[in-house]
Write a structure and sequence with these properties.
The complex is a heterodimer of chains A (195) and B (601). Helices cover 36% and strands 23% of the residues of chain A. By secondary structure, chain A is α/β, with parallel strands linked by helices. Chain A has a six-stranded mixed beta sheet. By secondary structure, chain B is α/β, with parallel strands linked by helices. Chain B has four domains: 214 residues, Rossmann fold, CATH 3.40.50.970; 97 residues, Rossmann fold, CATH 3.40.50.920; 173 residues, Rossmann fold (3-Layer(aba) Sandwich), CATH 3.40.50; 77 residues, Alpha-Beta Plaits. In chain B, 36% of the residues lie in helices and 18% in strands. The chains are: A alpha/beta (195), B alpha/beta (601). At the A-B interface, helix 1, strand 2, helix 2, helix 3 and helix 5 of A face strand 8, helix 11 and helix 21 of B. Strand 2 of chain A pairs antiparallel with strand 8 of chain B.
């Protein structure tokens, strides 16, 4: 099989489910028969801090890290975190960001305020910026915890995997009692966006 | 055989299982923690959290002498703690195989320094293997046990954060049936009196020479000939970055970095036009290669600080630099969780203007604004020892305002001996043990004070109060740090006491123990005087609205009540409409629009 190498960068705030999202993407790439690597850092950044996770898949992947200005997709769970890591996106890459803001304490006490129009700042790096209120969608199915899978559903439209492959990945990585709600979240996220 | 996506740490655990390891020990520390957590899932392997890395190394060494394959895992700075037994264990050698996994943290994602532990392997004259992905992490661990037994030496498997925490595809194997090796008394080999040590010292050099031959022939050191213009000698994760940056370059991949394969390096150097060493941190290989008289570029272009990435490697070698300007935005450092019991202690420490000598754990985050309470952080256990030094030497204006703050797991790791020092040498110190009943920072591991083992058994629970009293601490008391009045009273009283005192601030970690969660709080808008007092406790659940008044995010708030005590206007009240963990309609509106939470009359 000949696959195109792709890289996706997930960013967000510790506790938002960034790691599960990147795990699911890695799993679906494996199911599809690709080589896949992903990288992130645990520990200090466990809660409340800025989180970044890289996933790369295709024929053969060497470094698990994504180079600056090379990511095909930047999927951010929080607008400020999209800005923080925007230099990973390649020129014509897709930025998909959740619109729900999470104010860091430093925005209250520090000298730099939270930007008024965070999304606008992203356009300097790529024209393909897409917003999604993933929390609203998650709350439609009464599950604020599936924001991550809503976003995954949204970016799935840019990726070469079938729904069946995605659902198999969810089945494998998510606790049995949450599988259904995650599948729903995935489908809702997919419906919510068009590129 | 089936394939799975495993992190390097999961792959090491799998490797331990497949290698027939029967004994594994560790003290938790990022990026190594998940190794033992995953090993503990295999019931064939006895596994334990040891109180510290020295003990972890020694118990594994004991098990290896006693006849089974044993593994000890720790973060890079943990090897400092284990250095004493390590340095001499290479003299005695082992019986059954023994591997030390050293997980280094280039870039200091979660560490106080970025020391390069290949230097330790070299210093100790110990073989060192360096995998570059999860498959190799598993395979190299198994090979490390073979080398250990073949050459009668403990072996270091050196991994880095990007190997530990990156995931890649691994082919699983079966568990090897390793026979028990009977321990035989051998005084000259195992009992390092000077007379024996002198004998073993000679053996050590003989072994090292044989290991060098091995390194020159092992397939984990391999030459990948390609375009001859650029040759790269590289190790570990740097190999992956180099392959990505220069897919057509010739590469000498070093899988065994101590001893280095000198013949192979010389042979490779002859074949390529321009030779580079691409390695993170120290010029460890570079220096040795230069000592062989080989012309090579290394740290002249490759940074010795922080992690490498494919872009850094490419730009360094091609002499380019590409900078992208990201808009200036507020930082988002890790923070104490909403409801964290450490917050109450720090709020009072700030109020009393104390100098808090800190230690290693979640509570080190109390150094950040707005709490700004912790002033020092050096290594495990140093808070108490530093406080003794301060008590004896400090002559500044905050003489009676100095306390040591140390977590429960850190206290057990390395705080007990300095506490003995304090009592023994009559130091006037206040030691605050911030006891959240777990090893929180690394992900809630058990420790001797929790009364449970890594393997999930209940066991004798270390009683910190009794321990401190047995040491001879004259004043020992237990306080709930979420009660600010009691916290302040205890600190004031002990600061005025002339002698060693211990205050155990005990309340469970709210991430681990959700049973202590209460209903979230809310701010009554009309009562809020916008005084800003509650912002000073640095709770992520409290934010400021445009008028400067406080709002509480009910999704984050666990109702600890510290802000209520702080709130001078008593504007916080229990919310009866929102329950935590599940958003009602009201709650969802709050979250979406960041609107003020008004109390329903």
């Amino acid at each position: 099989m000949n696959f195109k190498n792709m890289s996706v960068v997930f960013t967000g705030v510790g506790g938002q489910g960034v790691i599960l999202a990147s795990d699911l993407l890695s799993e679906v790439a494996l199911i599809h028969g690709m080589d896949v690597k992903k990288a992130e850092v645990h520990g200090m950044a466990q809660r409340g801090g800025s989180v970044i996770s890289y996933v790369k898949f295709g024929n053969k992947i060497f470094s698990p890290l994504v180079e600056k200005r090379s990511a095909d997709i930047l999927c951010s769970f929080e607008p400020l975190e999209a800005i923080r890591y925007i230099d990973f996106i390649k020129e014509d890459g897709f930025v998909i960001t959740n619109t729900v803001k999470n104010f860091p304490l430093t925005a209250i006490f520090g000298k730099i305020p939270y930007p008024d129009n965070p999304i606008e700042l992203l356009y300097k790096f790529t024209s393909k910026v897409y917003e999604i209120d993933a929390l609203k969608i998650a709350l439609e199915i009464k599950s604020p915890n599936v924001v991550n899978v809503v976003l995954l559903g949204a970016i799935s439209k840019l990726l070469p995997f079938s729904d069946d492959e995605w659902f198999r990945a969810i089945q494998k990585k998510v606790k049995a009692k949450f599988v259904e709600v995650n599948k729903q979240a995935f489908s809702k996220g997919k419906e919510a966006i068009s590129f | 055989m089936s394939k799975e996506i495993l992190s390097g740490n999961e792959a090491i655990a799998r490797g331990a299982y497949e290698a027939g390891v029967a004994f594994a020990s560790a003290y938790p520390g990022t990026p190594s923690t998940e190794i033992l957590e995953n090993i503990s899932k295999y019931k064939e392997i006895y596994s334990e959290w040891s109180p510290n890395e020295k003990v972890a190394y020694e118990v594994a060494y004991g098990a290896a002498l006693a006849g089974v394959r044993a593994l000890a895992a720790m973060k890079h700075v943990g090897v400092n703690v284990a250095a004493d037994p390590l340095m001499t264990s290479v003299y005695t050698g082992i019986n059954a195989g023994m591997v030390l996994v050293s997980a280094d943290d280039p870039g200091m994602h979660s560490s106080q320094n970025e020391q390069d532990n290949r230097r330790f392997a070299y210093f100790a004259k110990m073989p060192c293997l360096e995998p570059s992905d999860s498959q190799e992490a598993k395979d190299f661990l198994k090979l490390a046990f073979e080398i250990s037994e073949q050459f009668d030496t403990p072996v270091m498997l050196r991994v880095t954060t990007r190997v530990c925490h990156s995931k890649s595809i691994v082919e699983l194997g079966e568990r090897e049936d390793v026979p028990y090796r009977e321990y035989k008394k051998d005084f000259v080999k195992y009992c390092m009196l000077p007379s024996s040590a002198r004998v073993r010292r000679v053996e050590l050099e003989k072994r090292l020479s044989k290991l060098r031959d091995y390194s020159n022939s092992t397939p984990i050191n391999r030459i990948e000939m390609n375009d001859l213009d650029i040759g790269i000698i590289t190790n570990g994760i740097s190999y992956q970055h180099s392959k990505e940056a220069f897919p057509n370059a010739s590469v000498l991949k070093i899988g065994m970095s101590n001893p280095l394969p000198d013949k192979m390096i010389k042979e490779f150097a002859k074949k390529v036009k321009k030779l580079y060493v691409v390695e993170e941190l120290e010029p460890y290989m570079e220096e040795q290669i230069k000592m062989m008289g080989i012309e090579v570029m290394g740290k002249e272009v490759i940074p010795n600080i922080g992690e490498l990435t494919p872009d850094i490697v490419r730009n360094a070698i091609l002499g380019k630099s590409v900078a992208f300007e990201v808009p200036k935005i507020p930082l988002r450092p890790p923070i104490l969780c909403p409801g964290c019991p450490h917050r109450g202690f720090f709020a009072v420490a700030s109020k009393l203007n104390l100098t808090v000598l800190g230690d290693i754990g979640c509570y080190t985050l109390g150094a950040y604004e707005p709490l700004s309470a912790i002033e020092t952080c050096l290594c495990m256990g140093a808070a108490i020892s530093q406080a003794v030094g301060f008590a004896k030497a400090y002559k500044g204006p905050k003489k009676n305002r100095i306390v040591a703050a140390i977590g429960d797991s850190t206290f057990i790791h390395s705080g007990i001996t300095p506490l003995i020092d304090a009592v023994y040498n009559k130091a006037n110190v206040v030691v605050c043990i911030l006891d959240n009943e777990t090893t929180a920072m690394t992900g809630h591991q058990e420790h001797p004070g929790t009364g449970r083992t890594l393997m999930g058994e209940s066991t004798v629970k270390l009683d910190l109060e009794s321990l401190c009293r047995a040491i001879g601490v004259p004043h020992v008391r237990v306080v709930n740090p979420n009660n600010l009045k009691a916290t302040e009273k205890a600190l004031r009283e002990e600061l005025s006491f002339d002698g060693t005192s211990v205050i155990i601030f005990r309340a469970p970690c709210i991430v681990r123990d959700k049973s202590v969660w209460k209903k979230p709080l809310m701010v009554v808008n009309e009562k809020c005087a916008a005084c800003g007092s509650c912002f000073k406790i640095g709770c992520p659940a409290i934010t400021k609205d445009k008028s400067g008044k406080a709002t509480v995010n009910p999704i984050l708030c666990v109702g600890c009540g510290v802000c209520v005590q702080i709130c001078k206007a008593s504007g916080s009240e229990k919310c009866k409409n929102v329950s935590i963990g599940y958003c009602s309609d009201i709650c969802s509106q709050i979250c979406r629009f960041s609107a003020l939470v008004e109390k329903e009359e």
